[in-house]
Amino acid sequence: MKNQYSKWQLIWLVTLRVVIGWHFLYEGVVKVTNPNWSSVSYLLDSEGLLKGFFYRLAANPNILKIIDFSNVCGLIAIGMGLMLGAFSRIALWAGIILLFFYYLSHPAFVGLKYALPMEGSYLIVNKVLIELIALIVLSLFPTSKIIGLDRFIFTKKN
Questions:
Q1: Of 32, 57, 88, 127, which has the most beta carbons under 10 Å away?
Q2: Which of 144, 109, 114, 150 is nearest to 14 (CA)?
Q3: Position 111 pLDDT exceeds 90
Q4: Distance between CA atoms of 47 and 113, rounded to whole angstroms?
Q5: ∠115-117-118 over CA atoms, to 5°?
Q6: Which residue, among 62, 67, 75, has the nearest Cα to 41 in the 3D structure?
Q7: DSSP string for 56-116
Q8: How many CB atoms lie within 10 A of CB 113?
Q9: pLDDT of 32
């Protein structure tokens, strides 16, 4: 693949991909190393239009086990994919979908109160939405085919 980016564009796009990947990976590792972690409190703290849906997920122990496992594995796989630039298109879109559900669970709308403390004051735009949009932007720039394992995975052999 021909590099269409300037040196600095490529450096900062790859840096953004790697640091978001690190964030996903770290969040997954923290959850897997904490034997008491469960998504139940997060789901029960949901507000907004879909809070009933998230409450029903939390109320079913079998579904909750699947959600917890999928969340941890998803975070780790997305993080590794982004950091290594391996299957990054899949990692990017999986991250977008995961963050979209996080945002739907805890939207930053006026009047919504959460039990879990927030780090700031938000109006519609919060860190989850910013990271989601950053992943959408990264999906438009396939840097992993230049710097990443996708360069080797998706190389066409003549």
A1: 88
A2: 144
A3: no
A4: 8
A5: 125
A6: 67
A7: HHHH-HHHHHHHHHHHHHHHHHHHHHHHHTSSHHHHHHHHHHHHHHHHHHS-B-TT---SS
A8: 6
A9: 96
Length of the chain: 158
pLDDT at 109 over 80: yes
Within the chain, what is the greatest distance between any pair of CA atoms? 59
What's this model's pTM, rounded to 2 decimal places?
0.91
Termini Cα distance of the chain: 14
Interatomic CA distance for residues 103 and 135, integer angstroms:
14
pLDDT digits (tens, 9 = 90+) for 31-55: 999 999 999 999 999 998 899 999 9
The residues, ordered by sequence, that sit 6+ positions from 43 with a Cβ below 8 Å of its Cβ are: 54, 55, 57, 58, 64, 67, 105
CA distance linking residue 79 with residue 84, whole number of Å: 8
